[in-house]
Amino acid sequence: MPKYVYSLSEGRLDLKDLLGGKGVNLAEMHHLGMPVPPSFTVTTEACNAYLAQGREPDELAQQFDEHVAALEAEFGKKLGDPEDPLLVSVRSGAKFSMPGMMETVLNIGLNDQSVQGLAKVTDKPRFAYDSYRRLLAMFGKTVLDIDGDAFEHVLDEKKHAKGTANDLDLDVEDLADIVGQFKKIIETESGAPFPQDPKQQLRDAMLAVFRSWNSERAVLYRRRERIPADLGTAVNVCAMVFGNLGMESGSGVAFTRDPATGAVGVYGDYLQNAQGEDVVAGIRNTLSLDDLSEIDKPAYDELIDIMERLESHYRDLCDIEFTVENEKLWMLQTRVGKRTAEAAFIIAVQLLDEGVIDEKEALARVTGDQLVALMFPHFDEKADREQIGKGMNASPGAATGQIAFDSQTAVELAAKGTPVILVRRETTPDDLSGMIAAEGVLTSRGGKTSHAAVVARGMGKTCVCGAEDLDIDVKRGVMRLRDGRTLRAGEIVSIDGTSGDVFLGEVAVVAPPVVRYFEGELDQDGIEADTLVHAVHRIMQIADRSARLDVRTNADTAEDAARARRFGAIGIGLCRTEHMFLGDRRAYVERLILAESTQERQSALDALMPLQKGDYLEIFEAMDGLPVTVRLLDPPLHEFLANLTDMSVRVALAEKEGGVSESDEKILAAIERLHEQNPMLGLRGVRLGLTIEGLYTMQTRAILEAVAERRQAGGDAKAEIMVPLVGAVQELEIMKEAILGVVHEVSEATGVDLSDVLIGTMIELPRAALTAGEIAEAAEFFSFGTNDLTQTTWGFSRDDVEASFFTDYLERGIFGVSPFESLDQGGVGRLVKIATKEGRESRPGLHVGVCGEHGGDPASVHFFHDAGLDYVSCSPFRVPVARLEAARAAVGAADETR
Ligand code: PEP
Ligand code: MG
C-alpha cells in the first residue's frame, strides 16, 4: 500500500523528492530538538496521483485521518472542538522552493461555534475574530478561487471608515462584522456557504494546494527556473501557533547571513501581533531582530542559538520563518536560503575560510550565471525608470544613450563622445562599425543567435534583441511604442541586456569591480580591499586547479584575443575571418566576384593576401605561445556585396537618367546570380573554398607567412587551420591537399618548419557527425560548430525561428530553453558524442573542442566535460564563466545551484 502521509519523526533529508523542502526541513529541525509545532506531510506522490486522476488516491483519506488523530492526541486538542479547537495550517512545499508561487491556508478549524470557543479559552475575542477573517479570506482565494480584491476591499473600507491604515486599530466588533461580510462574499461568489466542518475545510485546502502546482504563475516560475513540471508539491499540515495573540506574540523571517551582500551576522524582520503573511506583505513597518532582543530577550536568545545551529548543520546560509506565541518561540520553516550573486561568492569563501566546507563544495556553491551577473554593469534598481518594452536578454549589461537608427550616425555621435544605442529592426555585418561605436544594441527582430546577439556578445556589448512591441521604422527614423507614443533619433533610451528590459530616458548604472579584476587592473591590495573581488579571485584560483576541460576563446581581432587572454583563455578556438573582408576590403571582394579571368581573380586575391597576413600577425602576437585556430572563410560571398533591393533601385534610377555605370550593372548581375533562397544552406563554408579557386589557399598562405614571420622574429605562433561546413571527407581531403601544398611552399620559401601546423575541420552538419570516423582520417582536430549543428539537426533557421515561434514552443514546453542557447543534449548532443567517439576510434587522441555559442553556456559546458571534449571556446567575456563551469563540472557539481 503506498504511503502518502509521513509524520515529523518519519521525515529525513533524503526524502526531499517525496516530502518537499519544507517537509524534510521541518523534520530535520524536529530531530535537532528545535521547537517545531506538531505536524505531518502529505507526499508529492499523492499530489501527482491527484493531478493525474482528478481525484484523491484511495488510500489517502484513511492515512490522512490517522495523522490528524495523532496530531490531536499530541496537541491535546480536537479539530472542530467548539470549546477549545485545534487549528491547523496547510502549506505547500515542493522539492525546490518556489517563493510566493504556491498557496497557504492558515487557521483551519474555525467556524461560527469554535471562534467563540477560541475567544473564550484565550480570553482574546479580538484575536479569535482576526484569525477567523484570515481563514475566510485565504480559503476564499485559494480554495474557492475568489478574487482576493473582494476581501481586501471590505478590509480597506472598514479601516477607511475608522480613519486608520493600521489593521491593529480594528476592534472585535469591526472584525466580527468583516467576518460576516466575508462569509457573504463566499456564499455569493461560490454559490455555497463557507464549510463549517473543519475536516472538509482541511481536505479542501489540501486539494487546493495540490491544484496550485498547476496555477499559471507556478507554471511560469518553473519554466523560468527550469524546474521540472512533474515533481508535484507536498502539503504540510501543521498545528497553528499564533503570532497574533497580542504584543507578546509576533511573526518573523530571518537569515543567518545577509542574503544581499553575504555579510556575516543575522538579519531579519519581526512584526508584533501578526501572522506570517503580514511580514512579507509589508502592511506595517517591521522591526529588526535587534528590536526583538529588547522586546523579548529570551525568545531572541533562543532564536540566535537556533540560527547558529542551523547554519552549522546545513553548512550554509539558512532562511527561517518563526513565530513567537506568548513569548514562546516556534520554528515554522527553514531552508538553505536564496541569495544574490554577490552574496553567493562571498558566502562560499567565508564558509571555506571558516573550515565549514571544502574547495570542491565552494565551487558547487556558485554558478557561472552568477559570475555573469557580476561582470556586467547593471542599472540601479532603486533608480526611477519607465519601462517601454521587453525583448530577449541577448547580451548582459546596462547601456544608455541617444537613439541612432543607422551605423553612420552612431559612429559620428560616438566620435563626438555622445553615447548612443544603435536601434535597428535587425543588424547585418554592415552594422559592425555602428555596433562597435554604440554603447548597446536594440533590435525588434531576431533571437539569441541573431547577428546582433552573437556579435554583441562577442564584443561584451549590451544587447536586447527581438523587442517586438517596439515598432522600429529605420527609414522614417521613428520608434513607435505600444501606447502610440513615438521616439525619434537623438532621444534617450536605456537597455538592460540582463533582463531584456527597455527603459525611456537615462537610468543610473553601477560599475562592476569584478571586470576590472579580470582585466588585470587591480593589484593584490586592490583585490584584498574588495570583499567581492577577493571572493571571486579565490574561487577562480580553485577553479583553475580543478578543471579538466580547457577554455579557449572566439576572437577575430588582436584586441579581443588580448582581452580573452587576460580573462584566462588558453588559446583561440575560433578566429572567424569574415570581418577581414569588410570595410575598405569590400572593393577587393567585388573584384574577386566580378573577375572574368583567372588573372583578374588572382590579382584580387593577391591584393587581399597582405591585408589578411597583417591581421594574423597581430593575432598571433597577442596569443603568442598559445594555439590559434583560424577558420577559413565561411559565409556566402554575396553577403559582402550591396543589398539586392538597394542596388536594383540604384541601377533603375540611373537608367532613367540614362547613365548606368558598367560596374554597377555587373555588380547587380552578380548579386542576382549569387542570390540564394536559403543562403545558410547554400554556397558557403568549404563549398565556397572548393568553388572559388585560390580563395582558401590565399588565406592559408597569409596564415602561414604570418606564422613564419613571427617565428623568425623570435615569437611562438601556433596555428591550426580549420575548414568549415564539411559534410563529406572528400571535401576535406581535396582542401587538405591544397593546404599542404601551401605549407610546403611557404616552408621552402621561408626556411621555417611549419609541419606542426594542424589541419582540421568543424563538425557542424549531421552528416559530418555521422561520418566522423571517416572524416577523422583526414582531420587532425575537430571543432563542433554547434550553432550550425543545431540549425541543421532541427531544421531551424537560426536567424528566424527564435523571434517567430520559439516563445510558443517554450510556453508549450516543447523545450525549456532555446536549443541555440543551451545545447539540446538528447539530439545535437548525441551527435557530438557519436562524432567524438568515432573520430577518436579512427584517430586515437584526436583533439576535440566546441566553438559554437554553447561553449559559454553553463549547462552545455557540463555536457561537453562529460562527453570527454578537450576544450570549449567562447566569446572573451564568457571565458571566466566557462573556466568556472569547467571546474564545477569536474568536481561533479550540478549545472546550477538551487
Ligand atoms: C557554428 O556554426 O557553431 C560556428 C561556430 O560557426 P558560425 O556561427 O560562424 O556559423
Ligand atoms: Mg558554423
Question: Can you walk through the features of this model?
Answer:
By secondary structure, this protein is an alpha/beta fold. Helices cover 47% and strands 17% of the residues. It has 37 helices and 33 strands. The strands form seven sheets. The protein has an eight-stranded mixed beta sheet with strand order 14-24-23-16-17-18-19-15. Strands 26-27-28-29-30-31-32-33 form an eight-stranded parallel β-barrel, surrounded by seven helices. It has a five-stranded antiparallel beta sheet with strand order 1-2-7-5-6. Strand 26 (550-554), helix 22 (558-566) and strand 27 (572-575) form a beta-alpha-beta unit. Helix 15 (368-375) packs antiparallel against helix 37 and helix 23 (586-594) packs antiparallel against helix 24. The chain is elongated and about 105 Å long. It binds phosphoenolpyruvate and magnesium ion (MG). Magnesium ion binds at residues 764, 785, 787-788. Phosphoenolpyruvate binds at residues 574, 576, 634, 764, 785-788, 851-852.
